[in-house]
């Protein structure tokens, strides 16, 4: 449900800006050494993965001509689940930083109201913004225009399990 809410909000906010949202149907790729199927990935190998959502501004650039693999996202979004939490926060975060035009990496928690945003500030330097933890909070991202994503809209329709005492 969070992914649907996210893509819906982004689509509405980006309308007319020259930027567009994509969902987890498209892969993103970070170039590296080609890897044959079945061989374990090692440092320096190409990295191809499915983010939960992303944003492209301008024309999409396709990795190795594959129309289902984007090479030029400006923002990527991951929704944490218990099984992907560590991978999304560590492996994907480090690989995503290698994408030259990527400006934002946003991590949305599915087990509590919490949104983390990492922003490229200059060259290869990244800054982690203060996490947002209230439904009243708004995440502000700047592309061709500034957009605001309210946490209330991201978590609309979501109920969290109460901690058992």
TrEMBL record:
InterPro entries given in the database record: Nuclease_put_TT1808 (IPR012296), Restrct_endonuc-II-like (IPR011335), Uma2 (IPR008538)
CDD domains found in the cross-reference section: DUF820-like
GO molecular function: endonuclease activity
UniProt keyword list: Endonuclease, Hydrolase, Nuclease, Plasmid
Highest rank taxon of the organism: Bacteria
Domain Putative restriction endonuclease span(s) in chain numbering: 2-148
One Pfam family per UniProt: Uma2
Matching PANTHER family: GLR1098 PROTEIN, RESTRICTION ENDONUCLEASE DOMAIN-CONTAINING PROTEIN-RELATED
Name used for this protein in its record: Uma2 family endonuclease
Organism for this UniProt entry: Candidatus Chlorohelix allophototropha
């Amino acid at each position: 449900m969070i992914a649907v809410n996210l893509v819906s909000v982004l689509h509405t906010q980006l309308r007319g800006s020259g930027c567009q949202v994509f969902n987890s149907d498209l892969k993103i790729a970070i170039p590296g050494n080609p890897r044959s199927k079945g061989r374990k990935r090692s440092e320096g190998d190409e990295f191809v993965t499915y983010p939960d959502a992303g944003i492209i501004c301008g024309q999409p650039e396709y990795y190795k001509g594959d129309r289902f693999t984007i090479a030029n996202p400006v923002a990527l979004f991951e929704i944490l689940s218990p099984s992907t939490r560590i991978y999304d926060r560590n492996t994907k975060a480090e690989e995503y930083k290698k994408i030259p035009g990527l400006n934002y990496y946003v991590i949305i928690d599915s087990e509590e109201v919490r949104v983390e945003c990492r922003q490229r500030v200059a060259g290869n330097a990244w800054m982690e913004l203060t996490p947002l933890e209230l439904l009243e909070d708004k995440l502000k991202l700047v592309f061709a225009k500034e957009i605001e994503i309210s946490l209330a809209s991201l978590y609309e329709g979501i109920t969290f399990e109460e901690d058992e005492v």
